[in-house]
């Protein structure tokens, strides 16, 4: 075949190919208008196959890929378009938008400025330059916020940046990490999971998934994600540190639990204290550690320290029922019933179980009892004192506070001693009567049963106790010497 015929054949082929390519392009345009982007993509691809040197075909396919959220592929097509034709304004514009969507605001800005070189009045390029500048500014603010641990600021900045850079995994991961640091684990998990659905090998997203599990005290599962993140990105320092902390925290906590079960409370206290220094950011695990240390403190009779630890636990986790229960029991042990009632009310409002109701009612009863006169304290005896111990205590206190014994004291002292003498009589009247004592111990008011306790005559109780037959013939003055000597030698017997 002659060279002339070969040239003619080639020109004919190019002409046919060009017409066919244009036909594919027109069909692609029709599908694009109908928002059938998948079919549009297919026809633009056919056009490119027929005529691979046409910049507009790559530009059109780039636009379609952007609509399909396939921004990296769209970036490649738009870059190919401007390589074929550096004056292709739409190509530069689409390349810039792809860069911006992927979070590369600097590259995007260069593309938009190239558009403005070609067409200085292009309003779209002018607006996109502003968008790119805003993304850069939000990036800087987020970096400063992260360094200051102002995670709310970082989330705000990333939300604003993602309005323009919607396909930027880097921004999404940073937002997710900060959500995790703020304790907003479901939101953080959702963002990380969305990334992993598109890119299962994303080490940053795997790290965030692990971080959420770690902060929710699911340490074994968290370690699995950290290890997977390190497989995908061996130099991922955050994943490496988190994995090390997770393993150390689990080991130290388990050692503390074992020491506690073995009854080695001092060792358990130290182990829990050491665990609390590993990672201050792990709120849930640290709340459990504080509560555990509070439990140990109560075993070691360090009640105030136990209350402080339980308070730290509920500050970290306001929903931590076990910490409220432990603190409430410590308050009960200290007879600080108002505080105990508040904690038990909080627990019962959260979990309305029979057990919690019983604990609340018991605390309320003890609170009610604490607001009465404590007759056991008045006599100076324990609550399980025997009948003989109550009588001996009354004898001692009645003689100690009898008004005649203080007749030479000042009026103020006489008044105070008379009041104490009367209280001793009240206490003995109640505690020496089995029925009254039972009702008193049960928290019932005795006023309804005995009338006004304040109206009874303590002298009559005293005379009845010391004088035998109705108390006749007892003289405090005559027996004062006996009190000061013989009573001290415990020579009074019943």
Task: Write a concise synopsis of the structure shown.
By secondary structure, the chain is an all-alpha fold. Helices cover 76% and strands 0% of the residues. Helix 11 packs antiparallel against helix 12 (219-232), helix 12 (219-232) packs antiparallel against helix 13 (237-261) and helix 18 runs antiparallel to helix 19.
Give me the secondary-structure topology.
Layout: H1 3-33, H2 37-50, H3 55-67, H4 71-84, H5 89-101, H6 105-118, H7 123-147, H8 151-162, H9 169-181, H10 185-198, H11 203-215, H12 219-232, H13 237-261, H14 265-275, H15 283-299, H16 303-316, H17 321-333, H18 337-350, H19 354-370, H20 375-379, H21 387-401, H22 411-431, H23 434-441, H24 447-450, H25 458-466, H26 476-487
Question: What can you tell me about this protein's structure?
Answer:
This protein is mainly α. It folds into four domains: 116 residues, Alpha Horseshoe (Serine Threonine Protein Phosphatase 5, Tetratricopeptide repeat); 109 residues, Serine Threonine Protein Phosphatase 5, Tetratricopeptide repeat; 121 residues, Alpha Horseshoe (Serine Threonine Protein Phosphatase 5, Tetratricopeptide repeat); 113 residues, Orthogonal Bundle (Helix Hairpins), CATH 1.10.287. It contains 26 helices and no strands. α9 packs parallel to α11. It is rod-shaped and about 135 Å long. The relative contact order is 0.03. The C terminus is likely disordered. Pfam families: DnaJ, TPR_2, TPR_8. It comes from Salmo trutta (Brown trout). One of its GO terms (cellular component) is nucleus.
